[in-house]
Amino acid sequence: MVSIGALARLAGTTARAFRHYHEVGLLPEPRRRPNGYRDYDLGDAVRLLRIRRLTGLGLSLPEVAAALGQTAAADAAGLREVLQALDGELARQEDAIRARRRELAGLLARNGDPAAPRR
Fold first, then answer.
1. How high is the pLDDT of residue 97?
2. CB of 68 within 8 A of CB of 81?
3. Which of 95, 99, 63 is nearest to 81 (CA)?
4. Nearest-angstrom CA–CA distance, 15 and 3
5. pLDDT confidence bin for 5, thresholds 50/70/90
6. Domain segments of the chain: what residues?
7. Which pairs from 32-36 meet CB under 8 Å and 24+ separation?
8. Rounded CA separation 58/109 (Å)
9. Which tens digits make up the pLDDT trace of 97-112?
């Protein structure tokens, strides 16, 4: 069993963020020690690391909640669906960035003058 602070440090987050995950339902409340402190186990650590990984990929907390679901089957199906949607969005952003870079390269070739004729 481990404390909230130790687990937060392990996951690269803060105890405050951890508490927020409890408030929004991403992490279930763990059992408490006799002194009232939360007591986390390996399952909590795994779930926290999944949350951190998904938020690191750019998912919002509601998307993370949908992706993780409540059961193993829902977990796998929901996660796959959310990750596919994220991949599609990143592909659209990548296409937009490439188009902007081509336009920028054209401007640079004309010495930055947008009114200069294209070659």
1. 94
2. no
3. 63
4. 10
5. confident
6. 1-59, 69-119
7. none
8. 35
9. 999 999 989 888 887 6
